Amino acid sequence: MLADRVVSQDYEVELRLNQFGLTASELISVVHQAVAARAGFVLNHPLNAAGQLSYIYGTGAVRDTLRVKGWEIDRTGNIESTYNPTTGMKIVFQNADSACDDGRDPKAISDKGPAASKAVTLGQYSLFPEYEKEDEEQRKKENAALWYLFVYVNGDDVRAELSFPKRIEDGQFKGFNERIYIIKPGEWASMMPKVDDGELPAQDFEINVTRKS
Hints:
The protein has 213 residues and is an alpha+beta fold. 27% of the residues lie in helices and 23% in strands.
């Protein structure tokens, strides 16, 4: 099912993300940290450890990036998200089986539960909501627009999109209002940190994010 809107050109992506107070570079940095955490999987770990590490560190990276800008940790409905009290937008980190594929909607690696389904439904008309009373803050959180940062990893093929689903049925997303392509097929290699031949990569490094022209 085609999304109502697909934003894929780099200049369009930056303009759209700026409307949310975000940048592509920030989200690409989150993906770097999630991919690095996934690479920490070893044979003796539980089988689902790679995905769990990606989710844990990806969620943490989203919060590290956005809380300094006024976003907040939110766990309404036991959904780990990062919430912007000004715009009424939430972002959830999500491992996916695909991303940035025009012919295929991203699918969550693990099925979504009733709480996620309810949150997606409630958030359909709540982006940039207006509330007159401060005591309605909890209602605002419950009805926030729920966006997902979908991250797909298959070896050296890494892709990511920030997308706004319409609903969840039978544990999976069904249709999207909007999909914003952050890392498209073939772009990941140009976003990797450069390491000189013969040198071991530093344990701590600053990621230099570049976009393909």
